[in-house]
Specification:
The complex is a heterodimer.
Chain A (H helix, E strand, L loop, with lengths): L2 E4 L9 E7 L6 E2 L4 E7 L2 E6 L4 E6 L6 E3 L3 E6 L9 H13 L23 H9 L18 H10 L14 H16 L2 E9 L1 H17 L6 H15 L5 E3 L4 E3 L5 E3 L1 E5 L2 E5 L2 E2 L7 H16 L13 E5 L18 E15 L2 E15 L5 H17 L2
Parallel strand pairs in A: 12-16, 16-17
Antiparallel strand pairs in A: 1-8, 2-4, 2-7, 3-6, 4-5, 6-8, 9-18, 10-11, 12-15, 13-14, 17-18
Helix pairs in contact in A: 2-3, 6-7, 6-8
Chain B lengths: L1 E4 H15 L3 E5 L16 H5 L4 E3 L4 H13 L3 E5 L10 H8 L2 H4 L9 E6 L14 H5 L5 E3 L4 H13 L4 E6 L6 E4 L12 E4 L4 E4 L2 H16 L4 E5 L2 E3 L3 H11 L2 E8 L4 H12 L9 E5 L8 H7 L3 H13 L1
Parallel strand pairs in B: 2-3, 2-4, 4-5, 5-7, 6-7, 10-11, 10-13, 13-14
Antiparallel strand pairs in B: 1-8, 6-12, 9-11
Classes of the chains: A alpha+beta, B alpha/beta.
Chain lengths: ~400, ~325
């Protein structure tokens, strides 16, 4: 019997995944439970295991093509066994899917492999277009039967000549492609509005020093400023739940639990990436529990080992660029959340206290929120409460 | 410089090589003092070198080539003449099974420095047994070199190279080329094998042609030039070895290839040239490769029908225009 291996669904929201790398070739024997293909979904690369032992009869999707959840990736069976008749229909569906993937820029980096060509172009025109990274569908052919000729491509190049010499062209896929889609979706849909407030970080510093002093003595977990902020933000969100929400077109869904995502830079193959591991039910956790959990999460995220669940399900995000000396910045909301907090550096600043100028370690926090569902005053009250917690209640 | 016909140039090459090297001798039907060759290529040679070195034979092509192969193996440098290329079939075992293979079969200890001269080509209304162009057969036989000169200049330089070559060389001539003339240098010259000649430079379409088709292509080029179309005519001069680079370079420049061959289309040399270009220069093509060849029929005796099957300059003009529009 021929068994199909389909694109798995790793999360409730997952619609499709990208075939990252085939680990087996057609005709190769596979054992049950053996990984046969790497699949990228959202930001995670996962290995798909063979459900049965047999021979990999057919690879249905080339590398770097997207496959909808539930559609076949491969068929496994005995050598020479015929593929199911239904396969042809789904093959057509996948091809159509691939065709609909548009190329945004005329000088797009690469063609989708396996894409069905509709463009009439001579071999030399194709070669030139490929060399210059030109999408042939943008060129009007003047040759016989509308064929695109070498001259057509050269004319297109001279018309669109880019005076900027290209050092290298990097295909954007996988994680960065998801980030690109999410960020532009966020800016396109959410009504971004931001508020900045300055917080006296003296108590944060004192608390951290105290806890880390103890941790050092007892070999415990060290606490970061971000951990303290996670705890404080959770407390403030429980009191201002409108920010702990998601907007669904005609309704605002406010969540019971506060699940806070922490933006983490990952570096793989010399390329900077961005992941947001999520600490769940923060309102129920102590600062030390948060510190311990976030340390593990961040380590797994950086090692590329965070699970899909650990990277999804957030209700609010904190992003901290203070360690780079950034004083203030306006982050983009991480959809489908309603708000995000951008954390700046703690800097000694002159402040006036009871008529006298004193220096204080000050930190600027910027809230970006979706003004479609949260108005300025409630957002401001949240920030006011957060400041109060950080300055007086730690 | 002097102006010589193709026949005179061949005659001069034979004379010079016979004077240069005593081992060179000629063997064939009616090449001696009484007839001096059906096309007069051996004119005056028997008188100058004697009948020992310009040997008439009975009418047996197998005997001519067999004797020549044996002589070559024992150290002579025979130049055999087969009166019409069509009659090479009678010597085919000696050519394809003996001459071509001996060097291999004896582990390289023996060589066969043999030249077989023979004319191809239609256009003289001498019917199906005297009009074929069979060079593709020999191009398909490993161990043979194949020369296909189109002009008197090329014919002389290539024949001298053929005689000095240590491998069996099928030296094909063309009946209609025999009366064409070239300017020939007074001093000695040789043309190496495997060097194609660009007979005319152009930028729009590469035309690959041999023998009489080169002359037709040159006529077509003048007509096309008046229409603003410039063709580049590549004459390979030898099919084995083949100068692929010159062909590929030209196609890389023009992006279009028209092959003109005086042979039936199926499995002709054009099929091989087209395959090489699509294998090695596909990414430079602007349109599909086109072949103009004879239909897969024997050459008709009727002059009207014969003219109909042989590609001419008008067919090439039309082929080039079709190629630019296809």
């Amino acid at each position: 019997m021929v068994t199909d291996v389909v694109m798995p669904r790793y999360s409730l929201t997952m619609q499709k995944g990208t075939v990252a790398k085939w680990l087996k070739k057609e005709g190769e024997a596979v054992k049950k439970g053996e990984p046969i293909v790497q699949v990228e979904a959202d930001k995670v690369t996962t290995e798909v295991e063979s459900p049965v032992s047999g021979v990999l009869l057919k690879i249905c999707a080339e590398e770097q093509t997207e496959v909808p959840v539930g559609e076949p990736l491969a068929f496994i069976g005995k050598p020479g066994e015929p593929l199911p008749e239904t396969w042809k229909a789904s093959e057509a569906a996948t091809v159509q899917q691939k065709e609909s993937v548009g190329l945004a820029s005329p000088f797009s980096a690469r063609r989708k492999p396996g894409k069905v060509e509709k463009v009439r172009a001579s071999p030399v025109a194709r070669r030139l277009a490929k060399q210059h990274g030109i999408d042939l569908s943008l060129i009007q052919g003047t040759g016989p039967k509308g064929r695109i000729t070498r001259e057509d491509v050269l004319r297109f190049i001279s018309l669109h000549k880019d005076v900027r010499a290209v050092r290298e062209t990097i295909p954007v896929r996988g994680m960065q492609r998801v980030i690109a889609e999410r960020m532009s979706e966020s800016v396109r849909t959410a009504a971004h509005c931001s508020l900045t407030i300055e917080v006296d970080a003296s108590r944060m510093i004192a608390l951290r020093q105290k806890l880390n002093g103890e941790a050092e003595a007892e070999g415990g977990i060290k606490v970061s400023y971000t951990d303290i902020l996670v705890k404080a933000v959770a407390t403030a969100l429980k009191e201002h739940p409108v920010l702990n929400s998601t907007f669904e077109g005609d309704r605002l869904k406010i969540f019971e639990d506060v699940n806070i995502g922490v933006a983490v830079e990952t570096v793989a193959d010399g390329t900077s990436g961005l992941l947001v591991p999520v600490i769940r039910q923060v309102q129920k956790k102590s600062l030390l529990e948060i510190a311990k959990e976030s340390k593990g999460l961040i380590e797994r995220a950086r090692a590329g080992k965070a699970s899909h669940d650990e990277l999804t399900g957030g209700t609010f995000t904190i992003t901290n660029l203070g360690m780079y000396g950034v004083e203030t910045f306006v982050p983009i909301i991480n959809p489908p959340e309603s708000a995000i907090l951008g954390v700046g550096a703690i800097i000694e600043r002159p402040v006036v206290i009871e008529g006298k100028v004193k220096t204080r370690p000050m930190m600027r926090l910027t809230l970006s929120f979706d003004h479609r569902v949260v108005n300025g005053a409630p957002a401001a009250r949240f920030m006011q409460r957060l400041k109060e917690i950080l300055e007086n209640e730690l | 410089m002097k102006e010589l016909t193709y026949v005179e140039a061949l005659n001069e090459a034979l004379r010079e090589e016979m004077m240069r090297d005593e081992r060179v001798f000629l063997i064939g039907e009616d090449i001696g003092p009484y007839w001096e060759g059906a096309f007069k290529v051996t004119k005056g040679l028997a008188k100058q070198f004697g009948v020992e070195r310009v040997r008439d034979t009975p009418i047996s092509e197998a005997c001519i080539v067999g004797a020549a192969v044996g002589a070559a193996m024992t150290g002579m440098r025979p130049v055999a003449e087969i009166m019409f290329g069509d009659l090479l079939t009678l010597a085919m075992d000696q050519i394809a099974n003996q001459a071509a293979k001996i060097h291999y079969m004896f582990g390289g200890q023996l060589k066969v420095p043999l030249v077989i001269r023979s004319p191809f080509g239609a256009g003289k209304s001498i019917a199906a047994h005297h009009s074929q162009s069979l060079e593709a057969w020999f191009m398909h036989t490993p161990g043979l070199k194949v020369a296909v000169p189109s002009t008197a200049y090329d014919a002389k330089g290539l024949l001298k190279t053929a005689i000095r070559d240590d491998d069996p060389v099928m030296f094909f001539e063309h009946k209609l080329c025999y009366t064409t003339k070239s300017m020939i240098p007074e001093e000695e010259y040789l043309i190496p094998f495997g060097e194609a000649d660009v007979k005319r430079e152009g930028s729009d379409v590469t035309v690959f042609a041999t023998f009489w088709m080169v002359h037709q292509a040159l006529k077509a080029a003048d007509k096309l030039s008046k229409k603003g179309i410039e063709i580049e005519i590549v004459d390979p001069r030898t099919l084995v070895p083949l100068d692929k680079e010159t062909i590929l370079d030209s196609v890389r420049k023009t992006g279009r290839l028209l092959i003109v061959e005086e042979d039936c289309k199926t499995c002709g040399i054009g099929a091989e040239i087209a395959a090489i270009v699509s294998e090695e220069a596909f990414d430079y093509l602007e349109s599909p490769i086109k072949r103009i060849a004879e239909p897969d029929t024997p050459i008709p005796f009727s002059p009207v029908l014969e003219n109909y099957v042989i590609p001419n300059d008008e067919a090439i003009v039309k082929g080039v225009i079709d190629l630019l529009e296809s």
